[in-house]
Amino acid sequence: MRIVGRVEGDLSISAGESLRAETAEGIEVTGSVLCEGDGHVEGNLTCASLRARRGTLEITGTLRCRGEVDCQRGGLLIGQDLLCRTFEVGREARVGGSLQAERGETGGRLQVSKDASLSLGLEVGGALEVQGRLETSALEVGGRASLGSGKVLGTIEVGGEISVRGELDFEQLEVGGRILLGTLSRGTDLEVGGVLESQGELRLQGRLEAGGKVRLRGGLFADSVEVGGILEVKELRAKRVEVGGVFTAEGGVSVDRLEVGGRLSAGRVDAAELAEVGGHVETRRGFQALHLILSRDTRATGPLVAGRLEVGPHARIEDAWAQEAHLEHDARVRNLYADRLELDRDVRCEGDILYLADARVDPTARCAHPPRKVTQLPPAPSA
């Protein structure tokens, strides 16, 4: 083992060679370090630049490099901190402490035991693990990414899966597989091909697009939401929401436009414009919309309040209030209160049918009590 202290100029490390720092401060090289193959440095290393032709270079202490760290054909193992301007590693890179650089790139796996800061971006071909906080301008990971917490000023692109235990701030988040988020996440746009899960709240200034399932233990706040499969949230506020499958909200839902292909279950739903549901509807505190469309065979429990209410064939609803109500063939209603109403053939009414202005009732419609014109309707339930 070669003992090295301060080196004026460049330092060369032969393949398979081991160096030990002469003092606790480590090895200081005023010029560049060139490693010909596998190398081992015991202690700290400070240099102007570092290049490893091939193999893996291991440094047990901290590496401080004023310029570039180039290990394009090999790996880099740092026992403590890595501080450099840029780094490029072909295979695995492991940092036992913190990482600080302008820009970094690894072809394989990058593991950082503490925090990582890269002002100009980070690119990882394989897997990324930062146990602390990651701060960077852009992040691209080919495989899986795992973060303690993070702030990415630009875009996060992950080919497989990303998991974040704490808070995450981002501009764009694009993931091909699965997203696992922690306590609170904030960004502009989020797109995931598969599953999105969060232990906390998700706030987006723009859109959320998910091809599969979205499950949030906190609230979801966004401009627009599009989910191909299942959406489960504590509460939701957005301008436009489209769910291909089942939509479940523990609390309230406040939207401009809502479209659900399957079942909808919520504490309360308020749609400022249009709401259309293809499956069953269940609300504990009511469903209110300017224009509400319930498709064929829908089953709705809970009060419905709408400017215009359209109930499809064979649908079943309970109590409803509307300015205009149209119930199609074989629909059933318990109590209906409307300014104007139209009941198609074979509609069944179990309770009261009260209206203010006009009622068009097919002769085959069967009502427990004949529709009755009144001067005032019973008040609709409030939130």
What does this molecule look like?
By secondary structure, the chain is mainly β. It has a domain at 1-97. It has no helices and 51 strands. It is rod-shaped.
Task: Lay out the secondary structure.
Blueprint (H helix, E strand, L loop, with lengths): L1 E3 L1 E2 L3 E3 L4 E4 L5 E3 L2 E4 L3 E4 L2 E3 L1 E4 L2 E5 L3 E3 L2 E4 L2 E5 L3 E2 L2 E4 L3 E3 L3 E3 L1 E4 L3 E3 L3 E3 L3 E3 L3 E9 L2 E3 L2 E15 L2 E4 L3 E8 L2 E4 L2 E4 L1 E4 L2 E4 L2 E4 L2 E4 L3 E3 L3 E2 L2 E4 L3 E3 L2 E2 L2 E4 L3 E14 L3 E14 L3 E3 L3 E8 L5 E2 L2 E8 L7 E9 L4 E2 L1 E9 L4 E2 L3 E9 L4 E2 L4 E2 L10
List segments where confidence is low: pLDDT < 50 over at least 5 consecutive residues: none
Report the count of strand segments: 51
- End-to-end C-alpha gap: 78 Å
Strand content: over 45%
Provide key terms for this protein.
rod-shaped, about 375 residues, 51 strands, three-stranded parallel β-sheet, 48-stranded parallel β-sheet
Question: Could you provide a short overview of the structure?
Answer:
The chain has 383 residues and is mainly beta. It is built from no helices and 51 strands.
